Amino acid sequence: MAQKILEVKDLRTYFPGRNEVVKAVDGVSFEVYRGETFGLVGESGCGKSQTCRSILGLLKKPGRVVGGRILLDGQDITHLKEKEMRKLRGKKMSVIFQEPMTSLSPVLKIKKQLMEVFDDTPMTKAEKKRKAVDLLRMVGIPSPEMRMEEYTFQFSGGMRQRAMIAMALGARPELLIADEPTTALDVTIQDQIMKLINSLKQELDMSIILVTHDLGVIAQMCDRVAVMYSGLIMEMCDVVTLFASPRHPYTYALMSSLPDPGNLGARLNAIQGSPPNLAHLPEGCPFWPRCTECAEICRHLRPEMTEIAPGHSVRCHCLDKTAGYRGLIDVPKAKGGVALGKDTV
Amino acid sequence: MAKTQFDFANASRLVEVRDLCKWFPLKRTIADSIARRPVRYVKAVDHVTLDIFRGECLGLVGESGCGKSTLARTIIRLYRPTGGEILLDGTDIANMSDRELRPLRPKMQMVFQDPYSSLNPRMSVRSILSELLLYHGIVPREKVNDRVIELMGMCGLSADYADRYPGEFSGGQQQRVGIARALALQPEFIIADEPVSALDVSIQAQIINLLGDLQEQLGLTILFISHDLRVVRHITHRVAVMYLGNVMELGPTEELFTHPLHPYTLVLTKAAPVMNPLNRTREYAIEGETPSPIHMPSGCRFHPRCTRCAEICRKEAPPLREAAPGRFVACHRPLEAGT
User: Fold this and answer.
1) What is the C-alpha to C-alpha distance for residues A240 and A327, in angstroms, rounded to an integer?
2) Same domain assignment for residues A144 and A196
3) Is the pLDDT of residue A335 over 60?
4) Which of A181, A186, B106, B182 has an alpha carbon within 20 to 30 A of A173's alpha carbon?
5) Which of B112, B275, B252, B127 is nearest to B191 (CA)?
6) Superfamily for B13-236?
7) Pairwise CB contact (< 8 Å): B273 & A191
8) Is the pLDDT of residue B175 over 80?
9) Strand blocks (E) in A51-101
């Protein structure tokens, strides 16, 4: 496959407390290739957002990267100074958050906020303004010349998210980190924003890290996916494999707990219990107390990531038991490589 | 639990909503008063008519701002309606005073979206539940404790948790407490307003199962509000689709999802992301956004965004009419069943 834009190796991000250490990210490794959308999926508190914040250098105190390396386009950015980081953010990598209202300024006009993106580049005010209009038009805001004179509170939720995307993409970043970009939106608006990001990715030739808890969003947007649980990646593979033949009991449990249109009204296969406290992780595999396949070894020894097929890694001791899992879709035998939906490629 | 086919022909009506309106007046400036401009309203619920059958689970879907929560809160009389009737078991409760409503309150209860903010953080589960039981005199004082434990058991909470406070529970457990509180008064009718939206996927399934089991055991009537169509399709018998304060379509769940009659229903079903990476499209399910409820479009509220819009749609608001047995639609040019 193509070049790597980002490499994360054994990343550990801890939040030390007075008596205990919250291990938000505890040994996460993955790569993001140029031009792909890489999904991080998991429930709240699984460390997906903290992984992104570690990459961006935007960890909240007392969070700290205590181990591992982050390489952006070959450059080690793990412990870069804030001043250096600032040069990368926006140009090299950029971010959109879940709630656009909290990331936009309520007291500045959209125009002002958009034009700030170009502050580093030598440009006249008129040029900046023209660029800002172009950006708004690109993300599908109607009559951009008029709307850019407004404030964020005059925008609807969907429009705010569009403005946020325009701002993030202003300096043409190579990597976009989208942290739950559609979670706060209605279904019809979510549909529009997902498709907007998909087409902008191709237009601007970006790579995307997409963080979400929604498997539907993953299915519609990603090329490869990592499923996270308690600060660890449990399963990583391409999106079709994930939906066709998941191999980790947690991935499988997530899929089976969804209502199935073919079996309406039946009891849902809920996952028992709740996710563990990250300060007191169980010994062994963090998922064992809720796992249906749990064996003796799972309670004592944390499983390692094992590559079971090219590009498909799973962190589980019981791979023999999970071989028969059937996912949500059936795939006609792939003829070499991934065959995604006709509109992707 | 298998969702049983609901026998509508022989079902009696528990709640009848007739022409219900809830308008919120907009703030007037002094200039407005001097110029004698008329008061403007946000018509959150505008002439809604629907029946809720005894023992059914009715889903209420729509996008944010369509008035589904306002409708629910008006039916349960947390709001005073601007007009219309709400018949609970044949009695009109639309204009009752708070005092008159009090003896009826145990019949209808509500489960809220955010369990934590709907529970008093300074009261233990035991005191939250026993306060209700004592106030309404549901059980004699010496039996209150047993009843509390029984309620907690019904909702899958261990009796050891009785003296804990809401903040000590996880989100799923808090919602279980919220459900136990709603059930404490042995209601006939429960309104669940987005009860699983704030919960993680793995916990959502637990709560949905719990609601399904309780409905079956206790014969509850549930109005289930959600924006998650997958969940609604799973547990409801009938669904009402709302848009800008109006019910656009109402019908048995499966028929409505497989053969929507209203173009807006079709849009909603198309917009939900398909759980299949091999099935992606680039076309938007619908362009644009819901207009502001202050500047309501003329005629059919959906017409500016509708692909089937005709001349009549711009002028006349279509009434909700029965297009096929049990299937109601408010549209001049409904989709054929089967498209």
Assistant:
1) 10
2) yes
3) no
4) A186
5) B112
6) P-loop containing nucleotide triphosphate hydrolases (3.40.50.300)
7) yes
8) yes
9) 64-72, 75-76, 93-96
**DSSP string for B37-99:** PPPPEEEEEEEEEEEEETT-EEEEE--TTSSHHHHHHHHTTSS--SEEEEEETTEE-TT--HH
Cα–Cα separations (whole angstroms), residue A295 to A239, A289, A302, B123:
28, 10, 12, 41
- DSSP E strands in A129-265: the ranges are 175-179, 207-212, 224-229, 232-238
- Encoded amino acid at B94, one letter: A
Q: Between chains, do B1 and A265 touch, taking CB under 8 Å as contact?
A: yes
Which of chain B's residues have a Cβ under 8 Å away from the Cβ of A261? 230, 233
Q: Please state, for a pLDDT cut of 70, what percent of chain A lies above it.
A: 96
Same domain, residue pair A121 and A202: yes
pLDDT exceeds 80 at position A285 = yes
What mean pLDDT, rounded, does chain A reach?
90
Residue A198 has phi, psi (to 5 degrees) of: -60, -45
Q: CA end-to-end span of chain B, whole Å?
A: 32
Residues A115 and A235 in one domain: no
- Residue-level pLDDT at A332: 65
- Is residue B87 scored above 90 in pLDDT? yes
Q: Structural domain tally of chain A?
A: 2
- For A314, phi and psi rounded to 5 degrees? -135, 145
Is the same domain home to A192 and A253?
A: no
Q: In the sheet that B321-324 helps form, which strands lie side by side, from edge to edge? A: B108-111, B189-193, B221-225, B57-61, B238-243, B246-252, B327-329, B321-324
Q: Which runs of consecutive H residues, i.e. helices, occur in A8-156?
A: 48-56, 82-88, 100-103, 110-115, 125-138, 144-147
Q: How far apart, in Å, do the first and last CA atoms of chain A sit?
A: 13
Dihedral sign for Cα A277, A278, A281, A286, please: positive
- A150 and A98, same structural domain? yes
A198/A288 same-domain check: no
Those residues with Cβ within 8 angstroms of residue B302's Cβ, 6 or more apart along the chain or in another chain: B243, B244, B248, B262, B263, B264
| A267 inside 8 A of chain B by CB | yes
Residue (of B84, B11, B82) closest to B52 by Cα position:
B11
- Say how many CA atoms lie within 13 Å of A320 toward its Cβ: 1
* Beta carbons within 8 Å of B38's beta carbon, 6+ residues apart: none
Query: Quick one: A142 and A47 in the same domain?
Result: yes
Indicate whether A120 and A190 sit together in one domain. yes
What ipTM, to 2 d.p.? 0.86
**B276, B281, B283, B305, best to mutate vs chain A, most A CBs in 10 Å:** B276
Query: Which of chain A's residues have a Cβ under 8 Å away from the Cβ of B293?
Result: none
Domain span holding position A44: 4-227
List Cβ neighbours of A170 (8 Å cut-off, separation of 6 or more). Answer: A90, A114, A117, A118, A131, A132, A135
pLDDT, tens digit, for every residue of A186-229?
889 899 999 999 999 999 999 999 999 999 999 999 999 999 99
Whether the predicted pLDDT of B209 surpasses 90 = yes
Q: What is the mean pLDDT of chain B?
A: 91
Predicted local distance difference test score (pLDDT) of residue A267: 86
Cβ of A264 within 8 Å of Cβ of B276? The answer is no
For B26-85, how does the pLDDT look when each residue is reduced to its tens digit (9 = 90+)?
A: 888 888 888 888 888 899 999 999 999 999 999 999 988 899 999 999 999 999 999 999
Span A170-198, pLDDT tens digits: 888 999 999 999 988 888 989 999 999 99
DSSP 8-state class, residue B277: T
pLDDT tens for B97-113 read: 999 999 999 999 999 98
Walk across the sheet containing B41-53 and list its strands: B41-53, B13-25, B83-88, B91-92
